[in-house]
Each structure stands twice: as C-alpha cells, then as structure tokens.
Amino acid sequence: MRILIIEDEPGIAAFLKEGLEEEYFAVDTAYDGKSGLDLAMTNDYDLIILDWMIPGISGIEVCRQVRKAGECVPILFLTAKDTLDDVVFGLDAGANDYIKKPFEFEELLARIRVQLRYRSSESDSLTVDGLDINPVTHQVFCHSAEVVLTPKEFALLEYLVRNKDKVCTRSRIIEHVWDIHFDSDTSVIDVYINFLRKKLDAAGCRSIIQTIRGVGYVVREP
Amino acid sequence: MPKDAPRMHTSRTFLKIVPEISLRNRIAFYYTVATAFLIGLVFMLVYYVVDSTVYRHFDQELMAEVTEILEENDLKSNDFTGLASFRSIDEDDRQEEKDEHDVFRHNDVEPQFIQLVDAKGLVVKKSVNLFPDSLSFHARFRRTAYFNSNVNGQTVRQVQVPLENRHGLTEGYLLVAFPLENVIIVLSDLQMVFLFSFPGIILILFVLTRLIAGRSIRPIDEVIATAEKMTQANLDQRIPLPRNRDELYRLSATINALLDRLQDAFLREKQFTADASHELKTPLAAVKGTLDVLVRKPREREHYETKIHYCLQELNRMARLIDQLLMLARYESTGLRPRIEEIELSILIEAAIERLKPHAAEKEMTVRFNRMQSGNVAADPAMLEMIIENILSNAIKYSPSGSPIDIALEPGTNAFLCSISDHGIGIPEEKLHAIFERFYRVDESRSSSTGGFGLGLSIVKKLADLQQIRIAVQSARNEGTIFTLSIPVSFSCPYPKSIVKGVQTGCRVNGRQKIGLAGAAERHGNSENSA
C-alpha cells in the first residue's frame, strides 16, 4: 500500500514516514502544495495524507484538484485547524477523513485501515483459501499456522490479496508496494514473489499466487 | 463571570425600580402633560375673560339703571335730600316709559328689582315684583358695590349705591338688581364645555402623539431588531439606514461603524487564535508523533538520541513561542506602563549589538554603528532594548551572509531618529502594511527555517506605541529594508556635552534629511505607524 504525505513541517513528515514505513507502507513525502499535487497526479496512491496550511497551493486546493481530476483515492486531512467549520469545509472539499493535530499515531493507523478497508470492501482480515492476513498485526496464517514474512513480502502479499482476482501488472505492483525512490527494475518483484511462494508452499498454501506470463501476477482461489 | 455577577444583580434591581415605560409612551406622556397644562391655562383664561366681561357689562347696565332712577327722581347720590323724595319707584309712576323699560312687571323677561333702604338697612320702598322677598342689604359696603344674591329663589346681580346728603352722611341705599339666570347658564355651559372637552382633548392628544412618536422612532425598533439578531455568526449584518439624514440616521450609521470595527477586531482576534493554535499545535504534534513512533518498538541508541534531540529542539521552540505570546498578552493588557527614563541611546544599541554578535558572526555579518551622534532619549530602557534587538535580529535573519548592517543616529528637535538598515531580501511593497500584524510572515510558507513566528514585529509595535516611539519602514525588494525609529528626546538634557558642537549643525541637517526621508518613503512605498 502506497501513501503520499503532503506536509510542510519536516518533523511531522519525518515521523509519519518512519512510522508508516514500519507498518509496511510505501511512503512518499512532499513539503509543499505544488509538488504534492504533481506527485498525486502522476502516481497511483492508495491514500493521501494532507496538511491544510502548506506553502504554494493550500491543502484544500490540492484536495479539490485531485477530486476534479477524477481520482477517488482516499484523502485524509491532518491539520491543526480544529474548528467545526474547518472540519466541515475540509470534508466538503472532498476529503474522506479529518484528523486534528496533535493526534494519536495509533488512531491515524486505524483511520488509514478504515480507508483501505472501504476500498477493498472487506473486513480487516483478508482471506484466500486457507490463507489469512491480518493487516493490523501484520501476521499471516496458513491453515492456522503462522507464516513469518519480511515487511516487503508482507506488503506484496497484502497488495495482491487486496486485489484478489485482478491481474496486477508489474508496474502497478511497483507503484503500490515500493516508494518513489525505487528504480523501476521490475525483476525485483519476481525475486520477492519467489520468496513468498516458497514460504507459502512450505506452510501448505500452494499455488495461490499465479503468474500471468508477460503481464504480472494474480491471487485467485484455486 | 463571578466578577460580573454583582454588577448584573444591581442592574437588574435598577430595572425593577424604574418602571418599564416605552420611549414612545414616555414621549406621548410628557407631550400630553405639557399640552394639557397649556390647554388648561388657556381654558381658564378664556373663562376668566368671558366671566369678567359679562359681569362688567352687567354692572355697567346696573349703574346705568341707577343713574336713570336717580335722574328720574331728580336726585344725585351725593346730594340726597330724603328718602321720601323718591317718587317713581313704583310701576304706575313709570307708566310712560313702559314701552322702553318693562322693569317693574312680574312677568318681564328681564325684570329689574329696585329697593330703597335707610341707613340702618330697613326697607323704605321696593318694587312690586320683589314681594314677598326683598333684596339683601350688606351694611359693610359703605361705597357702591356689586355682588350676587338671591331673590325669590333666583340669582340676581345687584348693585348697592349709598345715598348721601350734601354733608356727606349716608341716609340710605339704593339697591338695584337684574336677574342673572341667563348669564349663569351661559357661564356654566362654558364651564361644562371646557370640563368635558378637556379630558377628551387630552386623550386624543395622547393617542395622536403616541402614534407620531411611534412612527418617528420606528428606526430605533429596526436598530433593536438588528442588534437582537446579531450573533458571532452573522457579524456582517448592518442596520438599514433611514432615508432622512436625521439623528436616527446618524445613530444607525454610528452603530454600523461600531459594528465594522467590532467585526474587524473579532476577525483579527479569530485569526490570531487560529494562528496561535496552529503555531502551538504543529510542534506539539511533531513531538508527540515522533515519540509515539519512537516507543512502538525498540531502537538503536543513536536513533533515540537523534529523536530526543529533535524533540527538545521543538520544545524549546514552543517555549519561545509561549514566552512571546505571553509577552504580547501582557503588553496588550492595559495594566502595563512603561517606566520612562532618560537614557543614552548608544549604550542601549551597543548592548543589543553585543548580544546578537554570535548570530551575526555565524553569518559573517558586521554591524556598523557610529556612536558619535548619540544623545539622551526618554524611553523605557528594557522596552527600547527589546525593540532594537528585535529589529536587529530580523535584519540579521533576512540578510545574506557577509552583508553589513548599518545603524545610524540623527538628532532631531523633538525626536532622535535611529535607523537600522540591512541589505537583505526586503519586503514587497504590498506586504509592508501587514508586517506588524501578529503571526504575519512575509514568506508565506510557515516553515521554521528562520525560527521566527511572526510575533516579533507586533511586539515591537506594541512596545513602541506604549512609549510614543514612531516606526517607519522603507524597503525595496532584494535591496534591503530600513527601519527608522523616532524616539522622543529627553528634554532635561537632550545631548551629552561631548557632541553639543555637532548638534547645532545636526539639527539643521536633520531638518533637511527628514524631508528627504519622507520623499524616499513615498517613492518606495512605506508604512509608517505612529504611536
């Protein structure tokens, strides 16, 4: 899952990036409205965390522009503006949620999960044929036996399972699982898919990830 | 709130004591009372005039009758020869004049009663129509007297004329009377008309006045209605102005102007609160979030150290901001008074330069200051020092490394001009007016790269206002900014002895340069804030 943070206060942007990366998200940061909007328009993010008062284009304007472009990516306002009018204004501008600073990091994570859940229209637990993924605890169970994955492996598996029955191209996978600093060598995906398959096969969940030759991968119920 | 409670209580009891009469009714009431008084006065006057006129005419007629009677008997009231000499007091004797005066007949429309009494009041002779009664005699009237009395059950106007012999002794009295019925009817009718019409007129007057008063104070009702609807949410409402440019128009316009100012102040306060909360919450969120993330899992020692260092830095920043906010709050409350002293300007400036030296050295900047033109000014030393330090620190902050900062002093007649000029980024003309506003930063990105909050200059402005120091700013983009303080001169000893010689020319030079400064200000676009 890939998240864009648009936040001008470097301290806040830094801990958000760190904390979210520890939660297996791929995170990009922008420090002003213009570059944030550019990133949001050129990349396919799963969620945008947006500050209101940012230099250049304001957060509200960024939100409007993104919505105007027809993007339905969840947008989460994270701002010190805390009056009722502000909250209403922000939500009406097209945001999906509104969090007032200062905030609990755990709450932010929960709210991010809510937005991702809406998108996959599933419960927090993701399941495919004996495979059980818990995005809160980052645990994966295969027929009730825990499979220990690295963060990247987990992120890859989570993305594929969330897009169950949809073919995920290599470039889409790159976009959603790795952040912007990753060079576009897609062969690394094959490496991670191999690691994943080995671990899942060993636990007894065979042939969940299928290869679509020349295109990418798909997770299907066998 | 509890502080206000007693006042609220007294105002409520006050309201209870004063009856709640509307302005409209009060105007009508006062007007009616005044008019009622006048109308009453006029009625009384009219009644008095009618009354006295009627009686005067009556009395004249009575006297004419007396004269006639005396003439008919060839007598004079002051040359009386005896009561017996009266001949023609009876009806039969006056037959010849019957067609003219039907005076002695019983059933005359306007009969006259005539009676003759002796000095003791005993009836000597009386006209037939008097029987069985007689005209009343008042011994106390020694001279001719007019009065009302009763005869045969009817009211009459009577005259009593003394009849004297040639020695001046009163031998008797001639009493003549006319019935008063008609006059009394007329007068009592008049009285009735007045009495009954008076309350009617007053009532009509009150109703009319109330109506007119209501119409003329209707704009006040509109003011009340607008004011009642006014809340924080719709502070932009205004009272509709009446068409006539009268007092009520002025009242409405004045209240509207007041509302303008209130709204302005309210919005500014709201903006300030929003800015202050943003400035306080952002570092708080950063510290909290950093620590939240930090404790989620065990980390390397260096990682902890970096994060804790960062948090401390943010907390220091917050502490600085809180200090400045408190300072601003203190200066804005009315309680603070500057302690004006006589101080040598150059000492203050040098102290400020000394304190900011590390910052200047960091950017390899030099502060050039010539103390030769210094003098004594009247100001609060601590406040003035803070002003100079703030402006100087801004100059260092917003100037490129290596550029010089100049501080120049110019003695003037009433004020010392102290200008601090840098070669920094400058302030765009359109933003000059706002630099003294709280939380205003010319650089729109509210990043903390310069470490400022935008409170410094608003504190400077407050401090300057408190001690009558005027601040003028001139700036040109990318050329630099000049802050000119005009500090009141201390009159007890305007200039130290050492530079007295320079001052004499300095004053003249200053006069010219002042004009030059104003001209330059107009060209550059300047913002001058007078205390």
Explained architecture:
The complex is a heterodimer of chains A (222) and B (531). With 222 residues, chain A is of the alpha/beta class. In chain A, 43% of the residues lie in helices and 21% in strands. The model of chain A has no long low-confidence stretch (mean pLDDT 86). With 531 residues, chain B is α+β, with helices and mostly antiparallel strands. In chain B, α7 runs parallel beside α8. Chain B has helices at residues 5-17, 23-72, 181-216, 218-229, 247-294, 301-332, 345-362, 381-397, 456-466, 500-524, and strands spanning 113-118, 123-126, 145-151, 154-164, 170-179, 341-344, 367-369, 376-379, 405-410, 415-421, 470-476, 480-488, 526-529. The interface between A and B is medium-sized, with 26 and 25 residues.
The share of residues in helices of chain B is: 40-55%
Radius of gyration of chain B: 51 Å
The major pleated sheet of chain A works out as: 5 strands, parallel
Q: How does CATH name the architecture of the largest domain in chain B?
A: 2-Layer Sandwich
- Tally of strands of chain A: 12
Uncertain residue segments of chain A: none
**Can you name the CATH architecture of the largest domain in chain A?**
3-Layer(aba) Sandwich
Summarize the SSE layout with pairings.
The complex is a heterodimer of chains A (222) and B (531).
Chain A: E1 2-6, H1 10-22, E2 26-30, H2 33-42, E3 47-50, H3 59-68, E4 75-79, H4 84-92, E5 97-100, H5 105-120, E6 126-128, E7 131-134, E8 139-142, E9 145-147, H6 151-162, E10 168-169, H7 170-177, H8 187-203, E11 209-212, E12 216-219
Parallel strand pairs in A: 1-2, 1-3, 3-4, 4-5
Antiparallel strand pairs in A: 6-7, 7-8, 8-9, 10-12, 11-12
Helix pairs in contact in A: 2-3, 6-8
Chain B: H1 5-17, H2 23-72, E1 113-118, E2 123-126, E3 145-151, E4 154-164, E5 170-179, H3 181-216, H4 218-229, H5 247-294, H6 301-332, E6 341-344, H7 345-362, E7 367-369, E8 376-379, H8 381-397, E9 405-410, E10 415-421, H9 456-466, E11 470-476, E12 480-488, H10 500-524, E13 526-529
Parallel strand pairs in B: 7-9
Antiparallel strand pairs in B: 1-2, 1-5, 3-4, 4-5, 6-8, 9-10, 10-12, 11-12, 11-13
Helix pairs in contact in B: 2-3, 5-6, 6-9, 7-8, 8-9
